[in-house]
Amino acid sequence: VHLDLCPMVFNQATSPNMMQWLELLGVEIERAEIPFSVSTKMDNGSQCYWSTSNGISSLLAQKSNALRPSFWCVIRDILKFKTDVLGYLEYHESNPDLDQNETLGQFIQSHEYSHLFQEAYLIPICASVWTCPSQGVLGFSAFSVLSFFRNHDLFQLFGHTESFIVNGRLRSFVDKVRVELEGMGCRIKTSCAVKSMSCYGGGGYRVQEEDGLEEIYDKVILGIHAPAALKVLGDEATHEELRILGAFQYIYSDIYLHCDKRLMPQNPSAWSAWNFLGGTNRAVFVTYWLNLIQNIDSARPFLVTINPPHVPDHVLLKWCASQPIPSVAAVKAFLELDKIQGKRGIWFCGEDQGHGLQEYGLKAGKVVAQGVLGKNGDLLVNPKQMVPSWTEAGARLLVARFLNRSISIGNLILLEDGGSMLSFGNASGKRHVKSVLRVHDPMFYWKVATESDLGLADAYINGWCSFVDKKEGLLNLFLIFIANRDAHKSSSSVVSKRGWWTPMLLTAGLASAKYFLRHTSRKNSVTQTRRNISQHYDLSNDFFSLFLDKTMTYSCGIFKREDESLEESQIRKLNLLIDKAKVERDHHVLDIGSGWGSLAIEMVKQTGCKYTGITLSEEQLKYAQGKVKEAGLEDHITFLLCDYRQIPASKYDRIISCEMIEHVGHEYLDAFFTCCESHLAQDGLFVLQVRC
Questions:
Q1: Which pLDDT score is estimated for 497?
Q2: Residues 528, 424: Cα–Cα separation, whole Å
Q3: Residue 656 is inside which H or E element, if any?
Q4: CA 382/CA 537 separation, integer angstroms
Q5: Would you say the C-alpha torsion 590, 595, 597, 603 has a positive or negative sign?
Q6: What angle do CA 461, 463, 465 make, to 5 degrees?
């Protein structure tokens, strides 16, 4: 069994920078269950335990709690606590000049929370996060601790933001980082303990390793805890470095990996990923249930306990670790870090520049990297969690149910901003196709539920969703849809008989009918075709010039190299059309759908033939005539503003139509080819390019 002893747990609401980094690295993630439980002995000797693992039933795992008014007072205090904290933080953040010297104990006393609220809720959570004695948390910085509660959504007993872990354990993440760094020329030394560092020459540093080796560096980044940084600096630490780094305080813990169930809640229904257990002597400990956190399918419990009251049975491993605590002194020191950062070519970053979690360490590292490079960069702030209306929540349920029923091949993942991850199908097996769609607005669900596939297209256009993989995300989504559509077609199930993308609501059918009626009202009759073409091609020539090449060719190019320009591919395509048509000097060529005139000019320059092109766009006509005049080819080139059904009676040696047939419409294809046949001279050639 592969275990992460300190699993990296994160979510979209509290770890936006970590999530972004994992996406950039291509690291896959999976859901993680992180419920919390408390089992503590009160001062009066009574037991109190509860859990968030299974809704109200686990909250009332201790059945007597349902009849205890004091327990419901705790629930009331939790709601009051949220209101008080948000008001407190808003006031202090609006007045940054206020000092942040108030301790958590002073905050609790001033707001008169019940004793049971402190014993059964607030202190256990704080002691679990910072793995310290119960009463020690009361001396923490109120502003720092309460900010952590807000940022990590700890006010809620239920409905927490969904958490994730790295798929394949942390080793897969570390390997990705290593490959990325080595690909950029970085040299990585592992199992290499640093003993000390000292000034060298005119501004560099000599770094001495434990094995005696020495290396010289221009600048040094110390990505370690403050006490370790001071130890490495030794006597060369400045007064300011000693003062600021020395203010960070740490808790040192003994940690065991074991299988001893006695260090879990006595009531199995209260077992959670994160379990606080305390006693009358104020000795507390925390046990993590790795099976639940890391989705380990094993009857044997793998448990990690911090500071147990006795050595567990069935110990697999023991180690020691330290963790920063959010003391008032540490908060002040954090605000003064700029006084020592980079001042003599030494930079400091570590998880102590926050709350000891990976997101804070990553942010500290990014700030230092930007400082070393002399650049400014913005860190991502915690996004707001999507709060759907009741109609959007209902639509979300319908969409999830539909996708769960419909997708069995490939893997479609919906990542909600600041919220949950919904996964449908799986990407294992022969058809390993995966698409991750980020949902930015709950209107996405309403649009899909009410307008089906057309609603999905509208939601994408409106920016309510986007793809994590900008290059292939949309393609992979279509591949997933096609594979499942084909699978359902070959199935005899009821679902397949109803059609793969069956509208979820009547409104979806109505929306489809709306688009169908709009489409049928725009059938390409002679009169309507002119309107249809004008609505697209007469937007403005300046608009089309924004994304076309210099030749203004609006059809598929032919590329031979990945680094080739669009202009090169278009000129190759024009030459191929001329070659395919075998145009000669004495030929008269008809171009149905002449566009902005690039084919006309290139053809006449190469062959000296006579050319007639037709278009229904006044903007195209104006532009093409201007370009022909610039080239001095008016004697050879004629443009007509007319429909293919209204071409003046004449015969042409060659007829070319490049990606115009897409505008004809299925019901008019016979008429189109009849017109082409009637205007083609005997033994003439017709060259047609179609966009597939």
A1: 47
A2: 43
A3: strand 652-658
A4: 43
A5: negative
A6: 100
| Alpha carbons 605 and 636: distance in angstroms, whole number | 10
Q: CB neighbours (10 Å) of residue 182?
A: 11
pLDDT tens, position by position, 122-177:
888 888 888 777 778 888 899 988 988 887 777 777 666 778 899 888 888 999 99
Q: Helix axis angle, 390-406 relative to 443-461, nearest 10°? A: 70
Backbone φ, ψ for residue 216 (5° rounding): -110, 135
What's the confidence (pLDDT) of residue 69?
A: 82
- According to DSSP, the residues that pair with 278 across neighbouring strands are 284
CB 602 within 8 A of CB 628: no
pLDDT at residue 629, as a whole number: 96
Domains of the chain: 33-161+260-313 (no CATH), 390-516 (no CATH), 536-689 (3.40.50.150)
Centre a 10 Å sphere on the Cβ of residue 548 and count the other Cβ atoms it contains.
Answer: 18
Query: What pLDDT is attached to residue 280?
Result: 44
User: Which residues on neighbouring strands pair with residue 49, listed in sequence order?
Assistant: 39
d(CA 470, CA 686): 39
Report pLDDT for 164.
Answer: 87
Q: How far apart are CA 238 and CA 243, in angstroms?
A: 9
Question: Which ranges of 490-617 does DSSP label H, i.e. alpha helix?
Answer: 494-498, 506-520, 526-537, 541-545, 566-581, 598-607
- Is 196 in contact with 208 (CB distance < 8 Å)? yes
**29, 166 in Cβ contact below 8 A?**
yes
Give residue 486's pLDDT: 84
Q: State the Cα–Cα distance between residues 381 and 15, nearest whole angstrom.
A: 9
Angle at 41 between CA 37 and CA 45, to 5 degrees: 155
Could you tell me if 448 and 507 are in contact, meaning their C-beta atoms sit under 8 angstroms apart?
A: no
Quick check: 127 and 284 in contact, CB under 8 A? Answer: yes
- The string over 230-255, giving b where at least 16 C-beta atoms fall within 10 Å of a residue's C-beta and e elsewhere, is bebbeeebeeebeebbebbbbbebeb
pLDDT digits (tens, 9 = 90+) for 312-337: 999 999 999 888 888 889 888 988 99
Closest to 348 in 3D by CA, of 252, 237, 193, 253: 237
What residues of the chain score a pLDDT lower than 70? Answer: 43-45, 57-58, 61, 158-160, 279-283, 354-356, 427-431, 491-522, 692
Q: What are residue 523's phi and psi, to 5 degrees?
A: -55, 145
Alpha-carbon distance of 56 to 72, in angstroms, equals 13
CA distances from 3 to 33, 288, 290, 295, 348 (A): 16, 12, 8, 10, 30
How far apart CA 560 and CA 557 sit, in angstroms, is 10
CA end-to-end span of the chain: 50
Structure-token pair, residue 155: 């006010």
> Can you tell me whether residue 600 is helix, strand or coil?
helix
R_g over Cα of the chain: 34
Could you tell me what percentage of the chain is helix, strand and coil, using 3-state DSSP and rounding each to the nearest 5?
45, 20, 35
Phi and psi (nearest 5°) for 510? -65, -40
CA distance 346 to 233: 10
Task: Compute the C-alpha angle 123/271/355, nearest 5°.
Answer: 40
Q: Are strands 220-222 and 680-689 parallel, antiparallel or unpaired?
A: unpaired
Helices (H), 321-357: 328-335
Whole-prediction pTM value?
0.67
Q: Does the CA dihedral 338-340-343-347 come out positive or negative? A: negative
Alpha-carbon span 517 to 450, nearest angstrom = 17
Alpha-carbon distance of 428 to 481, in angstroms, equals 16
Residues near 447 by beta carbon (within 8 Å), at least 6 away in sequence: 455, 456, 458, 459, 462, 464
